[in-house]
Design a protein that fits this description.
The protein is of the alpha/beta class. The chain is about 40% helix and about 15% strand. It folds into 2 domains: about 5-75 and about 330-445, Alpha-Beta Complex (Aspartate Aminotransferase, domain 1); about 75-330, Type I PLP-dependent aspartate aminotransferase-like (Major domain) (Aspartate Aminotransferase, domain 2). A hairpin with a 2-residue loop joins strand 1 (about 45) and strand 2 (about 50-55). The structure holds pyridoxal-5'-phosphate (PLP). Pyridoxal-5'-phosphate binds near residues 240 and 243. It comes from Acuticoccus sediminis. Its cofactor is pyridoxal 5'-phosphate.
Length: about 450
């Protein structure tokens, strides 16, 4: 009985749906990270930290809506806010009170957000922020860190997967890569060298806890160095807080680490589980979107539209979510639970003698599955001792098998692999997850 045959036996509904999906969607999926062999779970409903597939199997959820659900699934306050809005209209194509309340809350929580512009996704947010940086500085290029994810638009796609490789991925205009400078994370000397020798760099963009919410961690000290270097060389500093915003702390990584970026991209938590996103930052930069300011100085305005920008239902969800995050200690709760999960998993790995380790900060846990089977001590694991390549080196076959085994035990891990923890995860989920890991290791051994 392989884990795959057990998984297939318990998920016939997901399997049938996948057959249909495969005839509709490339690979049968609608987001690359939902790819899983033999097929992904089809989810029927979700509540708090749990979800149920279409066959009624229950899982502890660690996908967390790709990170959007700091408050867990179907938070009652967020749901009530959306239900109050929907009968009054789902789209006005006009200004409305909820967008003002939403923007004001963002600025209250993130003081560096002097101005806010709403978009629909994190991809749109980094696209707009990079355009603003070019307009403001008059320079064409941006510096990014290998492996960091900033969405899938053309410029963001250079240097994401093929790190250090500044060629344009397939389908991306060839000229784009010339204006993307890729640096290794945590290498301040290299950043300084690049900024000192290239005067065409408009901005440095960074995921403030490192690639994939800290899978390849970067130190807060590196952010402070980036702030110092970018200021010295007249380059803008952009934090991509799509995943860290309102999660690492109510004010995101920038407030937690005390570093004010010039521009910030936000998505996920900001809209309380609905599609919605934003860029925020210095007024003099966002002024390039302002009709009056640009007209008064006789300059060109950056054009920016978007049918669903600040959609009223997303705004209502965002206001409810950010209010609750501000008032209830949700970030701290999620982070404390994630720490318990990391400790519990490491105790299992040590007891079982597998060369694996759980690590991470904030409300994330990452699993290092050490494809080379070197001896490691899970109870004393320090990701900083490993190179980015090693941290990314998990064998995809092992990851897939572990995910299937954990699903058979009622836990759905995120695919990198690891998990994003919500404020609704608690002792019951910690216990279930640790027990599932112990049984999964036994299943994978047999
Ligand atoms: N930036 C970061 C750091 C992300 O984690 C993501 C999504 O996972 C994005 C950008 C892209 O956001 P979206 O999926 O909303 O386009």
């Amino acid at each position: 009985d392989t884990v795959e045959s057990r998984f297939v036996a318990m998920t016939p509904g997901s399997g049938r749906l996948f057959e249909q999906a495969r005839s509709l969607f490339p690979s049968g999926i609608t987001h690359d990270s939902r790819h899983l062999a033999p097929y992904p779970l089809a989810v029927g409903r979700a509540s708090g930290p749990r979800k149920w597939d279409v066959d009624g199997n229950e899982y502890v959820d660690y996908i967390g809506g790709h990170g959007a659900l700091l408050l867990g699934h179907a938070d009652p306050d967020v749901t009530a806010a959306m239900m109050a809005q929907i009968p009054n209209g789902t789209h006005y194509g006009s200004s409305h009170p909820a967008e003002v309340a939403w923007g004001a809350l963002i600025r209250e929580l993130m003081p560096a957000a002097e101005r806010v512009r709403f978009t629909n996704s994190g991809t749109e947010a980094t696209l707009l922020a990079l355009r603003l940086a070019r307009a403001y500085t008059g320079k064409p290029r941006f510096l990014r860190f290998a492996g960091h994810f900033h969405g899938w638009h053309d410029a963001a796609s250079v240097g994401h997967l093929s790190h250090f490789d500044s060629t344009s991925p397939i389908g991306v205009l060839p000229g784009i890569a010339q204006n993307v400078v890729v640096a290794p994370p945590n290498d301040a000397a290299r950043v300084e060298e690049l900024l000192a020798t290239d005067d065409g760099i408009a901005a440095v963009i960074v995921e403030p806890t490192g690639q994939t919410f800290g899978r390849v961690p970067i130190a807060p000290e590196f952010l402070r160095t980036l702030r110092e270097l970018t200021t010295r060389y007249g380059v803008l500093l952009m934090f991509d807080e799509v995943i860290t915003g309102f999660r690492v702390s109510p004010g995101g990584a920038q407030v937690a680490f005390g570093v004010d970026p010039d521009l910030t991209s936000l998505a996920k938590v900001v809209a309380g589980g609905m599609p919605g996103a934003a860029i925020t930052g210095r007024k003099d930069i966002l002024d390039f979107l302002d009709f009056e300011v640009t007209a008064a100085r006789g300059g060109e305005k950056i054009r920016h539209q978007g049918t669903f920008n600040a959609n009223p239902v997303a705004a209502a969800a965002g206001v409810a979510a950010l209010t609750k995050i501000r008032d209830t200690g949700a970030c701290e709760r999620a982070s404390a639970t994630a720490a318990e999960i990391r400790d519990g998993l490491n105790a299992v790995f040590a007891a079982e003698g597998v060369p694996w380790a759980a690590y991470g900060t904030s409300s994330a846990f990452h699993l290092f599955l050490n494809g080379r089977n070197l001896p490691i001590d899970p109870l004393d694991f320090e990701p900083a001792a490993y190179s980015p390549d090693e941290l990314r080196s998990n064998d995809p076959g092992v990851v897939n098998a572990l995910r299937l085994a954990m699903m058979c035990e009622g836990v759905d891990l995120a695919g990198w692999p690891g998990g994003i923890v919500s404020a609704t995860h608690g002792p019951a989920e910690v216990t279930a997850t640790v027990a599932a890991a112990r049984r999964s290791i036994a299943a994978l051994r047999s």
